[in-house]
What does this fold into?
Amino acid sequence: MEMTFRWFGTGHDSVTLKQIRQIAGVKGVITTLYDSVPGEAWEKDAILKLKKEVEDAGLKISGIESVNVCDAIKVGAANRDECIDNYIKTLERLGEADIHMVCYNFMPVFDWTRTELARMRADGSTVMAYTQDAIDRINPDNIFESLKEDCNGYILPGWEPERMADVRRLFEMYKDIDEEKLFNNLVYFLKAIMPVCDKYDINMAIHPDDPAWSVYGLSRIITSKDKILKMLKAVDNPHNGVTFCTGSYGTNRENDLVDSIHAMKGRIHFAHVRNLKFHSDTNFEESAHLSEDGDFDMYAIMKALYDIGFDGPLRPDHGRMIWDEVAMPGYGLYDRALGASYLNGLWEAIVKSNQ
Ligand code: CS2
Ligand code: MN
It folds into this structure.
């Protein structure tokens, strides 16, 4: 396991590389070209510049989150092959820059969905939260507006204002895309990119849908063990793998995290480890990473990753906002740094007790 930290890049993140470097045990960052447009190829120079900036700070790029997949690929539009060619170019350039892990998602219209970005907890910290009632009340046209105020001026990944301004058109695009079509479009995409992944040894790691069920009638296919195993089998290449995100995949309480980690052995290329606190099956908030603050057994999760021999990058995921920090919701420095230290502690104990 390699402990990493997500960093959105200079100008897009309140956290600096210098701060990340000072979190004990964090050796690498998970980053992206935040300004890149899905469907367009990433410029070689921009990748090398980013790499140099990270390395000059004494860190390395442990992977990219995300190279976003454009809607044309997800819906199988006439121009999808052009978009796939550009995605392949990006992968080639990343491979040439010695970057070997790419996280992406295949969710229609919205990336992860929360209904509150700053729910106040008893200790005065704030967290992101989801309630199905709120989703059912908010018109999808307005969801972006309803969350905007709590973004602290940052653009949330997948919630770019230009994109959200056009949300009606996006819904229209996905109107006929049922689960089967979406799945076939994912398989088409994966088959097309596997040769370049083989050539450069790039691990593709699909992120689970969050929440792990359909929202606003849009299809979601990376939501359960069976569906994920079906996807892994459809393109049975070790480079076709998953990001095991406990906080996203675990939104559906029917998903057994430990059992799923074992079932996906060898195909988990990246792990996001965070905790959730449930008030009902469809009403949850993102808690501190510590087991006792939420409903997941973080020791059991880390132990399962250890037991399957997981050796890829792992990162704390969304954290609480604490100590008056002002940052992108979920992506402040303090609580994620506490999360990284805690997860490192669990890992050290597991390693030593197995020696
Ligand atoms: C999210 C996502 O939970 C998460 O990790 O922040 O934005 C995630 O980065 C994407 O879905 C991956 O493409
Ligand atoms: Mn995640």
Q: What stands out?
A: The mean pLDDT is 96. The chain is about 40% helix and 15% strand.
